[in-house]
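Before the break, one more example. Copy the sequence into your notebook; we will annotate it together after we see the structure.
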Amino acid sequence: MRTSLIASCLCLGLLGGPLAAGDATFGGQIALVQPQSDLNGGKWLHGRAGVSAGLHGLFDLGYSHAFRPRADLSLIQGGTINIIDSGGDSQLFAQDARTRILAMGLDYNFFIMEHHLEGPYTIVGLGYAWASFSGARLLAGGSGTPPAVWPSNQSAGAIQYALGMGWKASPHLGGEFRFTQSTFRDVGVPFAQVKAPAFSLSLTIEY
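Here is what the structure looks like once it is written out:
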């Protein structure tokens, strides 16, 4: 985990040099997060919602293009998490845990309207996410046999993908709808994994 964090910071640092040549604004975002699939028991549009907050920088590349390095911390207080096999085909067992996900990545934004860096825009992002599950306890359910020793605190990292749409009502205020996807492996025990797709609705502020 430490090596991945250092690598991510170095990548963002290397990007900072060429991006700094363009116009840049900095700000933050707050969001409501709705996990899907295995992170909330595998029930569509059900389960525990969470909150997220983070920081970002918007680097204007000209001609409606922009890059945006960002970091988000999402908190989900509790709920059923389905542990699936390494092939992702069947549920092994279930746990209940508080979930925290820290994500760092880089978005590419394309602004659709003629008003440069205002109005609607598309989002394509790539980054890395670290998930920690605390206070975990096994629940009934699933097709496998729970392990004899189950850690109450677990962590795992994974690549995160992002797609979305946004709207900047002004140079300083906007909103976004994002979908993110990560698959965390070796959660608690080897070869167990948790898929973590999520929708988020956020307010963005820049200055």
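The two ends are 32 Å apart (CA to CA). Helices lie at 2-19. Try to locate both features in your own notes.
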